[in-house]
Amino acid sequence: MNYSTPDELDAVFKRIYEKTDETGRKQDDADDFTNDSDMHAETTEPAQKTGLHERKRLSEDDKGEDEKEKHNKQKPNTPFESGAETAAVREQRVAHEPIDLPHHLLDDPIRAEEKDHRWLKEQKRLLKQTLEHFNVDAEIVAITQGPTVTRFEIQPALGVKVSRIRNLQDDIKLNLAARDIRIEAPIPGKHTVGIEIPNKTPKVVHLQEMLEAKAFKEADSPLTVALGMTIEGEPYFTDIGKMPHGLIAGATGSGKSVCINAMILSLLYKADYNEVKLMLIDPKMVELTQYNGIPHLVTPVITDVKAATVALKWAVDEMERRYELFVMHNVRNIKSYNRKTAVEPMPYIVIIIDELADLMLVAPQEVEDYISRIAQKARAAGIHLILATQRPSVDVITGLIKANIPTRIAFAVSSQVDSRTILDANGAEKLLGKGDMLLIENGTNKQLRLQGPYVSDEEIERVAAYLRSKAEPNYLFEHDDLYIQMEDETEDELFDEVVEYILEEGKASTSMLQRRFRIGYNRAARLIDALYERGIISAQNGSKPRDVLITKAQWKGFE
């Protein structure tokens, strides 16, 4: 179509700019001028919320045949075509103002009470008296009162062994009538020993007072989260990007889930939903489902354990897809990619699992493999893991998982064994519960004691409702996609060959299938499970191979 007058050209350029504003991406001039009616249809058609495969089709229809061929060559083999879908979602995003969450949605902090100087003076006297009674020459040189505990810093005289003070732990606890005490001998970087005694009246830390702190507001990273207050009464924040993965463990009621909620709310206040996406896995079904429908989610909160395993596989494939993009653009990480590309920034993805033990019971090998791969490689791709469990046993927190997750947060546990499983050190068995935690960050073995902020269900609901009112969720995939993928994975192309093979052998085992068909353990184990579910082989009998329960004639009847 020819445009002969300036007015007609102005009208065309106006539609082009309107289109650019809606999609966030400029189209080639050739595409804009090819057909006036096509361009008008593209700019006025409302964005449709489509399924995963429909979105992929829409994104490919806009390309020429050559572009389609190029796109198909570059697309990785991922479950439910996550790479193409993510690109389509990026193209569908509409420019928007970042959501400014108001702080009044959170509970107001309680005014701090004045220090009980009489109690502090009495505790100091009793502690000094105990040391003198056992002939330990030491001086109390500093007293620091935090929200939950007070730390007395003891400076032993020259020649006094630190172990003598450490061995008096039970005697100090008895004389001070303390619920429990923790001795840090020595305090890292100081010439003193720290003795931490529970406060007479603990102070509740609220999330609002932490998020209003200057350090949080001025932090550059969108992955900045509030962890708690130090013994000095200072708010402590960390960057999930530097973690880069975290393990949270502690007994029931110790504060794990509250800590996770504080981290999630911190991300919601700090980052726009185009900067950070969340994948929430909640096998307990009651801890994280309040966040359903917020625009930050990759997918609705996952409560099915088997679907969670497939979702972790999606994360692994998304990680590989991102690395392929980095290679194409000659960059090393997500920050460089976002700086170099002019399209919508690639979002960070934070995967939070609140009860790892439930996943490990259903599919331990697969879950361990996926978690390990993400933990080993996903940092540069902007994908981060936060794992929580109330069972810090070695069958849940395996050596492979622990080796790849450097940041640990321990809440109160019942034994030194559990403490060592989490932290590789004692200490968590001395914590007081209700948010009292020990943190070991990436790159250090120093334990930092914090009091986590309290987050109520009402606060979560108010924040989630506000976000739902401001923006619709734009999921990268739905639960139906996970279930379809689960069904697809149950049908292995080797199944019929495997049945023929075990009918010849008269027995079946995972190792037999691995050797005969040259496949990995996971695939062989899934085939064995499928054979058992169909009644073809017997149940497991120790280390012996399983018996074949059908004949060749029966198998032909099944076919």
Would you kindly provide a written description of the structure presented here, covering whatever features stand out?
By secondary structure, the protein is an alpha/beta fold. The chain folds into four domains: about 5-90, no CATH class; about 115-200, Threonyl-tRNA Synthetase, Chain A, domain 2; about 205-215 and about 225-475, Rossmann fold (3-Layer(aba) Sandwich); about 490-559, Orthogonal Bundle (Arc Repressor Mutant, subunit A), CATH 1.10.10.10. The chain contains 24 helices and 15 strands. A seven-stranded mixed beta sheet has the order 8-9-10-7-11-12-13, sandwiched between helices. It has a four-stranded antiparallel beta sheet with strand order 1-2-4-3. A two-stranded antiparallel sheet has the order 5-6. Strand 3 and strand 4 (about 195-200) form a beta hairpin. It starts with 5 loop residues before the first helix and ends with a helix.
